[in-house]
Amino acid sequence: MLGKTAGGIYWMFRFLERSENTARLIEAGFRIALTKSKDPASEWKSVLTTAGVRRNYDLKYDGYTAANALDFLLRDTDNPSSVISSIENARTNARMVRTALTTEVWEAVNESWMALRAALKTPVTETKLPAVLGEIRRHTALVRGAVHGTMLRNDIFDFTQIGIALERADNTARIIDVKYYTLLPSASYVGSTLDNVQWETILRSVSAHRSFRWLNDHDISPASIAEFLIFDSRFPRSLSFCSRLLEDNLGYLAKDYKRHLPCHEMIEAQRNILRDRDIASVFDEGLHDFITSFIRQNNALGLQIEQDYRFVG
Amino acid sequence: MTLDRQYFDEMHSGTDNVRGPYAEYKTWFAQEDAARLSKKSKEAESFFRRTGITFNVYGQAAAQERLIPFDLIPRIIANREWTKLSKGIEQRVRGINAFLHDIYHRQEILRAGIVPVELIAQNEAFLPQMIGVSPPGGIYTHIVGTDIVRTGEDDFFVLEDNARTPSGVSYMLENRETMLQMFPELFSKIKVQPVSDYPKNLRRSLAACAPRNCDGKPTVAVLTPGIHNSAYFEHSFLADQMGVELVEGHDLQVVDGRIAMRTTEGYQVIDVLYRRVDDDFLDPLNFNPSSMLGVPGILDVYRAGNITIANAPGTGIADDKAIYSYMPDIIEFYTGEKAILRNVETYRCSDPDSLKYVLDNLSDLVVKEVHGSGGYGMLVGPAASKKELATFAAKLRRSPSNYIAQPTLSLSTVPIFTKKGLAPRHVDLRPFALVSPNEMNITPGGLTRVALKAGSLVVNSSQGGGTKDTWVLED
């Protein structure tokens, strides 16, 4: 397999994951701004920060309105992480690595691109937003389904999973990073409506508001939410789950290629942290420090994978 | 443009009668519901969009990927017509390979005075770097797409020999797939020779040309300029269908005197490179130094006999439009036979008498750039305005040797499907020949390109042409 192809696959799936995550962030932000928040502007500001695009947004707009934030996050080609940019990038990478994809996967990506380009051609009004977000989710699900149903379980598949896992871990970690202060155990907040709203935002941003309740019926506390997002390996967007997905797939590559590389050392270190720690020790260390160090380490792992598998010459 | 001429229509030929090859199809068509066919036609378009069978148009910012319109009426060729055509193509391709070997070695044909020396020496398509180089297996042009036009029942002409990197074969294959999906019943009624073996044959043919030092199964790869190239779809399609890697210049490098591709596990040697990158961009060390598309040093590896490049560098000297006019003599010189397929009468504007004739008759002629392709930089006299003719005449006077001229041919027509029923449109044909030391394989049929505008003679996809499925009937 060409190094370039591995890189194309990896980025294709990172971008697809990113478009889905952005849609999910918008959905949570929109709902909270609509229903619960007394300060919608700060809600949108926090969505933009979580998506990692606030600096670019600030260069373009003064103030945080729903219309501007939506446009920037969904349709703006100046924003490299907007849904339209992500899907465009995913499809460009798919074209580049087309020989490594099954027809079904290629067609699913190509159709997503056609459909979303049409859906995002004109500004998305609040009335149309739910339908558009639904379409984004549906199309990324179609691609995922085609991948699972038709791709060989070989190195190509491994790189799809690695791209997804890295992007997803980064996304969940950034959500925690932006909202960490609401998860800090502070006596003054407990029981107030404010933190309930914030906690719900967090859970909605990772589509976990229902599953969390299923699992934690009687214990809705900052510590249990943080624990769920970081350590619960049943939840497919937790850091622990993503890390295990990475470990598995990097492990398949090591076995397949019969080579143990620096990225394998790094994933092992990441796994150890998540396995050996518990939420109490994380709070002792400081949630913020823990998360920023995870984000840094996760990024470094991504770069190491690029290097170890020769994505670029 | 509408010309007051009678054209040979391959389905109806002058009278209301149906020509033999189309008889069964016409019967089927007469019973079909136009609305159903209309719906099928739209289905085909969305199929092409969905599968991304597109081409890129240079110099257009918006809508960079376009579809080549597909017409659902097949172009049908009788087996006996095809037999003659394929013999003619085979002879011509043999002649071209012999010519290329000779022109880069002893140059007997120049000594014999059949082709003028200056035509070679001053030609940019002639690569001095190739002098004395013998490609593995002795093959120069492995894949040839000969453009053929028809003007009457038995009148076939070769319009161009595409001996460098002919494109369009993916459309030939996808058009057939589309027809099979849309009208399976037709193919059980009418016996059409299959084309689907092309990728398998291409791979076998390329592998048979591997360098001598290749031990074991040759590693084949397709070299593309990248996703922005107009024919990128075809490059990835062929790599995919052959089951080989699609590489770009930056994936390759010289390792221990061989060309190797960067894989996730290190560098892996390539034995045969099917390149879809032009000569000039192939090797920045030996050709255009600013090229980002090629592989520095690949020509040196090639000269040492350590990789097969298909088609070989320098094959352009054989399909140059100035050489074209000598092709019948070239074929006879090397094969000892008269050319089976005729050439179109060609005026070389470098010759003062010809130039005078061309300038005097510009409105009746088609004038082409010697090194042009894709229908760019070409003048169709009868369709041009007075102003266009004057501008072109000035260009001709300025650099006459850049141009050749040909009479406007009465290209045959085949009907296309329109909302108002069948309507005749001009067509050409590009069959594809694969050459290896063991055999020559010509896929029955090829790519039929059709000018979609009524009366238009320009079939190029970049100029609004479409394509048709091409059927060669079983006997």
TrEMBL record, chain A:
Residue ranges of domain DUF403 in the record: 1-309
Signal sequence interval, chain numbering: none
Domain of life of the source: Bacteria
Pfam families xref list: Alpha-E (PF04168)
PANTHER family membership: BLR5612 PROTEIN, SLL1039 PROTEIN
Protein name: Putative alpha-E superfamily protein
Protein species of origin: Yoonia maricola
Lineage: Bacteria, Pseudomonadati, Pseudomonadota, Alphaproteobacteria, Rhodobacterales
From TrEMBL, chain B:
Pfam families recorded: CP_ATPgrasp_2
Stated name of the protein: Putative circularly permuted ATP-grasp superfamily protein
InterPro entries noted in UniProt: ATP-dep_Glu-Cys_Ligase-2, CP_ATPgrasp_2, UCP005522
Domain Circularly permuted ATP-grasp type: 74-451
